[in-house]
Every structure is written in C-alpha cells, then in structure tokens.
Design brief:
By secondary structure, this protein is of the alpha/beta class. The chain contains 7 helices and 8 strands. It has a 6-stranded mixed sheet with strand order 5-4-1-6-8-7, sandwiched between helices. It catalyses: Mo-molybdopterin + GTP + H(+) = Mo-molybdopterin guanine dinucleotide + diphosphate.
C-alpha cells in the first residue's frame, strides 16, 4: 500500500468542546501555532491528501487551503459523525483520523497503523495504558455500519469499534506523556 496516495488524512475538529466551555480546542495555540495545524502538518508529512472535519470556525480552518468538511448529521453528534461525513464526501478507501488536540502524533503513524492493520478494516492507537480510538486508520467498508450505528442514536466510539466491528488491533504509537 502506497501510504502517501491511498490514505486520506483527517483532522477531527468538529466537536462542541463542552468540557472546554465551548472553546474550539483546535484553535488553542501551542508554540505559536493552533493545535489543529500541528496535527495537519504531521499528517501532511506522511500523506498527500489531508482534510479537516470542522463544524465551527470553518473560515479559519479554510485559510490553510485544506478542504473543510462539516458533519452531515444534525447537532454534531461526536467524532463518529465527523468520520462518517468525511467518508461520505471523500473518495478514498482508507482514512487516518486524528483529533485536533493531539499535536504530537508520530511522524510514522500512518506506516505503523498500516503495519498493524493486517486484514482488519480498522486499527487504532493504544499507548500501553489505554485506547485512543479516534486516532485510527479506517477503511471505507465500515461506512454503512457506522451510518446505521449513528442513526440508532449511538455515539460511543469504542463501543462501535468493539461491538460492531469486533476487531481490535493495538499499537503503541504515542507516548502517553504526549496525550
């Protein structure tokens, strides 16, 4: 698999940030640059096509020149809705999703996840202590299952990955101090 051309990188910045008092986490700065831009830059060193899933402040994200995709489901029901929306609007077969507040993703994340994937339709990061299911390499094949899950009112990412897909591939790709 040629990683650069077969995987679409996605910065997930579509949340409501309820725990942050509504502050758009992706726009918080680290070393003079918005968090989301750190993630996008890291993905662009690994992949030739990167997009942003955002539901607020689209004009700020669009200044980067990257395509910005809004959730197709009403009320922005979480990261799975962002994943679904990107799959509905982008033509790729594989998607590497990373939340906007993970600025220290490894420079070889796409390669690591691809290596661990085997024949699984999805693989996500585990840091040795806990799962990080929104940092995931996902195949388009899960799109119909994901749509059904969301239409049933479900929102939990790990529940979808474990129950609906019954697939779990772990990788120690992120040092826990960077999360």
């Amino acid at each position: 698999m040629n990683l650069m051309t077969t995987i679409t990188g996605v910065v997930l910045a579509g949340g409501k940030a309820r725990r942050m008092g509504g502050v758009d986490k992706g726009l918080l700065e680290l070393n003079g640059k918005p968090l989301w831009q750190h993630v996008a830059d890291a993905l662009m060193t690994q992949l030739s096509h990167v997009v942003v899933n955002a539901n607020r402040h689209q004009e700020i994200y669009q200044v980067s020149g990257l395509k910005v995709i809004e959730d197709s489901l009403a009320d922005y029901p979480g990261p799975l809705a962002g994943m679904l929306s990107v799959m509905q609007q982008e033509a790729g077969e594989w998607f590497l999703f990373c939340p906007c507040d993970t600025p220290y993703i490894p420079h070889d994340l796409a390669a690591r996840l691809t290596h661990q994937r085997k024949d699984a339709p999805v693989v996500w990061v585990h840091d040795g202590e806990r799962d990080h299911p929104t940092i995931a390499l996902v195949n388009r094949a899960i799109e119909p299952l994901l749509l059904e899950y969301l239409q049933a009112g479900e929102r939990r990412v790990m529940a979808f990955l474990c129950v609906w897909l019954a697939v779990m591939r772990l990788i120690s790709a992120i040092v826990k101090r960077h999360l």
